[in-house]
């Protein structure tokens, strides 16, 4: 739904609707245009206005539920210079590169960069001192599969310990926790079946990111939607979760679903 040129009285009614449904809705997203800038405005449970530009070029504004459209207008206009500079930087970026999993290519394990190298052994190995990640000397598809299996093992080892810590601490139990290659999500929770899915890409991020996403999905066992109660529970169980969320957004990595390197978002300072 577009709101460019929306009358003040109509904007007010929309805002009132947001306030009324805030406790039962997760996020309300609207398309909006200010000074020639196309935006995606998300009304959600946050304390302050935030601005970001995603790798796809989408300009997103996160706004507290009771924010007026005039406040959003002023906020965006104050950041026009930053938006245009980042849009120009994004336009100058080369197209996302295809991961070839070849010697010298940079990949990440738990937030640390490693240079790939191949060897005659069938196993994936790390050399911490040299910052190398050794893959078997096979074709590209098999190298990718070997790295994915290695990441899966790495995540599984950490998840066992994290689940042993967080399930008793939060007073919850789950029937299954699966690791999958996902294109657009970091995790999901099937509340009825008490099953959690986590993205294999999390093995590339700092460990705090995996912990944050796990706790996020476990909190859904208490609260289905991303409403104020959900975020209060996140604050209670993991007070620094927003720091990990920021790391997750900015950390580079490979999407195994597409085989492309994935850059981070631009966040306004």
Describe the structure in brief:
The protein has 269 residues and is an alpha+beta fold.
Question: What would your notes on this structure say?
Answer:
The chain has 269 residues and is of the alpha+beta class. The protein has two domains: 8-92, no CATH class; 106-267, Metalloproteases ("zincins"), catalytic domain (Zincin-like, 2-Layer Sandwich), CATH 3.30.2010. The chain is built from seven helices and 14 strands. The chain has helices spanning 8-21, 69-78, 80-92, 140-170, 207-219, 228-237, 241-250, and strands at 28-34, 37-44, 50-53, 59-64, 106-109, 112-119, 125-127, 132-136, 176-180, 187-190, 195-199, 253-255, 260-262, 266-267. Helix 5 crosses helix 7. The protein is flat and about 65 Å long. It starts with 7 loop residues before the first helix and ends with a strand.
CATH architecture of the largest domain: 2-Layer Sandwich
The helix count comes to 7
Strand order of the largest sheet: 1-2-4-3-14
Q: Quote the average pLDDT.
A: 85
Strand content: 15-25%
**Helix/strand class:** alpha+beta
Cα Rg: 21 Å
Please tell me what the overall shape is. Answer: flat
Number of strands: 14
| Total domains | 2
